[in-house]
Amino acid sequence: MIALQSYIFGLPWNWLDAIIRVVLIVLLMTLLVLGLTYIERKVIARIQLRLGPTRSGPAGLLQPVADALKLLTKEDLRPALADSWVFQLAPFAIFVPTFMAFVALPYAPGWGIRSLSLGVFYILAMTSVSIVGWVMAGWGSDNKYALLGAARAAAQMVSYEIPLVLSVVGVAMISRSLDIGKIVNDQGHIPYIVLQPLGFFIFVTAMLAELNRTPFDIPVAESEVVGGPFIEYSGIRWSMFQLTEYSSAFIYAVLGADIFLGGWNWPLGYHFGLWLQLLWTIVKASLLILSVFWIRATFPRLRIDQLMSFAWKLLIPLTFAQVFFNGLVLVYGWPSVFLLVFSGVALVFAAYGIQMTVRNSVRRPREQRMDSVRRWAEAREGAGQAPSPLVQQLLREERERAGATAAPSP
Asked: Between 240 and which of 62, 91, 286, 342 could a Cys-Cys bridge form, CB atoms 3.0 to 4.6 Å apart?
C-alpha cells in the first residue's frame, strides 16, 4: 500500500532519512508562511490601491521576519480560569495534522516526502482532523467569543467537508485511483478541470470554507466574535495558528493543481525535465493561492444562515449529483464528453442558484418586514393561537412608533 521513494541524498539509514524529511517539512512550512504573508499583503494592497509593506528591508521583504521575531519574543499569556491542558494542547491539535498532511503531497515525479497509494484519502483525512483543535481552543479559553467562534468553525468545517470530499471523489472515480501521482499521470492530454468544472468550482469554494477565508471567515469575524477561538492566544501559540492557516492553503493549492489542473504533467508532459515540471506545479498552485487572496479583497463576508444554506442546499446536492452521473458514465461506458456536458450544465445551475440567493438575501425595508410580521400574527389569531411574546412586543413597539410619528409637534 505504501511505496517508499528513494532515500534522500542516497542515505541508507531509514531513521536518518526520516529525520531529514521531517526537517524539510518544518523548513518548508516556515518559509511558506513568511513568503505568503508578504505576498498577501502586497497583493491586497495592490487591489486596494495601497503600497503594502515598504519600511522593513528592501520593498518591505523583512516585514514577515520582523513579525515572526515579535511573536517569538512576545509574552505567552493564559486566562486565569482557562482549562490549562486543553488551552495548551489546542495549537498542537491544529498544527500536527497539517504537518502530517505534507508527507503525502507530491510536487513532481519523485519529489515528495512519501508516495502513498491512498494519498488523496490521507491528505483529506489529516486536514479534517484540525477541527478538533478549533473546538479545543474555543472551549479551553474560558471566553464566550472564543466558544462562539469554535461552534461556528465546527458547524462550517463539518458542512463544507462533505462537498470537498465528494468533489475529489468525482476525480478519483474517473482516474480509478486515490494515488495523486497516478491521477496526475492520467491528465497528460486533458486536465480533469475540463471534465469536471463543477467539481473544481466546489473544491475551491469548500477550500475557502475549510481555511476560514473570506467570504467564509465567520469563525474569526472581528466585528462579531472579535477573534474567534484564538482571541485569548498570544505570542508563539498564536503564531502556530497562523502557520497552520497558510500551510493548509498551500496544501490545498498543490492538491487542487495536481488533481484538477494536471500537476506537472499537463500540458508539457515528461519531455522537458524535472525542474520545469516542478516549476509548472508551483505556478499552478500559486494561481490558486493568488485567487484566495483576490477573493479576500473583493468579496464581503457571508452571514451564518447564508453560509450553511449554501453548503446544504446547493453544494452538497450538486456534488451528489456529480458523483451519481460520473458513475452512470463510467458503468455504461459513455463518451467522456458526457462528463463535461453534465458538469457544465450543473455549474450554470450553481451560478443561477448563487445569483438568486444573493438577490433574495437583500435586506427588505422595515415597512415590508413589519407588514409580513403583522400578516403572520393575524393568521395566528385567526387560527385561535396567540402570537409569540416577541412578535407581540414588535407589534407594540411599531404602534408606539407610529403614534409618536403621527403626534403633532408642540
From this structure: 91
